[in-house]
Amino acid sequence: MAQQGVRKLKTDRKPALPEGFPTLVEDRADKGTAAAARLRFRHRTAIASFLLMVLMPIAATGWYLFARAVDQFSSHLGFVVHSEDPSSFSGLASLPLVAAFGGASSPDADILEAYLTSQALVEAMDDRFSLRESWSQTHETDPVFAFSPVGSIEDLTRYWSRMVKVDHDHGSGIIAVEIRGFDPERTQDIGIELQRLGSDLINRIGDVARTDRLRHSKQELQLAEERLSMARQVLTTFRLLHRIVDPIADLQGDMAVIHQLQQDLADERISLDLLRRNLAAGSSSARQGVIADSRIVQSERRIEAIRGRIEEERQAFGDAGGQRDLARLMGDYEERVVAVELAQDGYALALAAHEANRAAANLQTRYLASYSPPTLAERPIYPKRWSILASVGFAAFLLWATVVLFGYGLRDRFQ
Prior knowledge:
Helix content is about 65%, strand content about 5%. It is of the alpha+beta class. A four-stranded antiparallel β-sheet has the order 2-3-1-4. The protein is rod-shaped.
């Protein structure tokens, strides 16, 4: 027994630590059991703040959503702005001037999207449906989701943005509209009127574009007519000044005269050569009279006369001192003829463009195509009570957790 006691004392004895060595684990063998956990002030504060910041907002929001909020109905409609190139209605589309008058398509869908949320549309819809009275009837019961009866037109425009949602797909050009209201029939009527006003806007844009194209093409046609008239007048003045209708015909006549004179000169030279050879082949007395022969003298005079005539005719082409300088005259005439031809081509293109635009003006090139007419709701889907309640609860819990963590951090920092 004594030996067992000695062994127990040896096993219970802890190894001695060196002097000055720090104790890493506090020896609690002699301190007894831990005290029972108590609900401290910080715990009560966290619970009270949870009730105040989380449960009470959730309860108040749920009470308002399910007891006070009025049901809202929605109507959906969709349409697309269709535009066509007016030059495609005519076979003149390949002409560059006609293509220039055709113009590029404007962003009609973007214009319509901006119009659907504009104050001008809100005023028109308010005059048609009395939106202030319709949307403020439930204001005493539901002041959060209803419109204030004392609100201004700016307030009504902002509230319109809450009740009318416009979704525009810029890739395809499709516009989808969702309209909310407290009465399903009135909500559908608002959608029908909204579609009609949008169609009127697109038609006005098309009318302005067609009128502008017609005005442009008419101005260009008048300008082309003036240019053609001026070019023809210059050509007529040139003909009256020089007393000539067609210098080309005169030139061809003069060239024919010169060609004939050259032919006569060649024939006369040949005749002279033959005459001299015949006289040279005769008797000696005949050879001595070759020089004094009257036929030779007349032939030589005729040759000189033909040469002189050819020189005079040639001087008419480029002699500035002559009565007619045909070379300069032809240059001036061709310049005026080219001006007339260009003016005629310009007039023909302007006339074709004007006729094409006039034909396209009788066609509707821009219109609003509806792929989904305004729907009539059978049950309310707004406000989305459970989604709103979940969002409020999550936001309240997140705020409460942030405040509690911040408070505990300050406590640990200053303790």
